[in-house]
Amino acid sequence: MDGEIHSLESIINNNLNGYDLEQYNRIHYGRTNHIEVNLKESSSNTANDANFDIAAYSFPAKEEQTRSPRIVKIGLIQHSIVTPTDQSIIDQKNAILQKVKTIIDTAGEEGVNVLCLQELWNMPIFFGSREKQPWCEFSESAEDGPTTRFLRELAIKYAMVIVSSILERDENHGDVLWNTAVVISDTGNVIGKHRKSHIPRGGDLNESTYYMEGNTGHPVFATRYGKIAVNIGFGRHHVLNWMIFGLNGAEIVFNPSATVGGDCGSEHTWNIGARNAAITNGYFTAAINRVGYERFPNEFTSGDGMPAHNVLGPFYGSSYICGPNGVRSPGLSRTRDGLLIGVLDLNLNRQVRDSACYQMTQRLELYLKSLSKALDFNYDPQVIHEHRK
To answer: What is the pLDDT of residue 202?
Structure first.
């Protein structure tokens, strides 16, 4: 990604220092000190050799008298594709798996308990092409497909829960395709899965060509390390989507995504979406986005009046972690593969909820009445006009 800015943080750190930098960090990130966590020298060496960034930050809670700290270490992986998209499906997928394995191994050596990969991590984002072949061949079983089998071994090896977003083929229901997050336990078992609830229908990411809105509700997965949920991709733009994961008891909600920048892209909203959700719902959030440009053999158009093109991107990375108090980590690079680690004390969730009282004051019964009315075919919006009685 020649000519692209490495990261927002690189701009800040190159132009601010001392008191100004501290105050910027306080206002923008929520604390003057990012509380960096020391990494193993071997991890830094591996990252350097394999050409990916690695960073780790702590999110502590206050010491309590009646509860011990609930420390969990999470990891987020962002990356680009490897093999050109005109190569075989098997070659493309295997190249990505082997590339990401090195990063997963590093996360395992760092003691990561819960790892989340980016949306549809084992394939390019071909949705703009609207072509069915050969792209549908990336689909596989969520329960026992090759990607899940590959990750099971790593989950067992490192006693690590792994969240893997794939293109699922449901052979038991007419070969229907879904955008599905598979949650693999630290024992190697598939705990369950969640299918993407909200499907974008605009620009290059017209994903409704390939799969339908999910039918799995808002599941929360009770793992050895805490209760986690997965708000896939475009679902981050839907406030109620985030809220119901919280109502179901989520302590960490991951948002694996594939979203692009540019003049009409999502980058200006990326840094606030998952952060807003963390604040309003009183849980940790973790947003993951891929990096790079992806070139396809045939040109396609987006229905937006722009010329036909065969390159999708830039995917701008910038993965980050946010606490329930709105304190967030610096983002990973916009241009490079990376592993971001967060050391979280889940006690912080309750401490923030006790302090802010957002859950105590949210008045769900009012929303229930209003939403019920809004769904009525003859809905009359509650608008008061000056001269109408």
So the answer is: 78
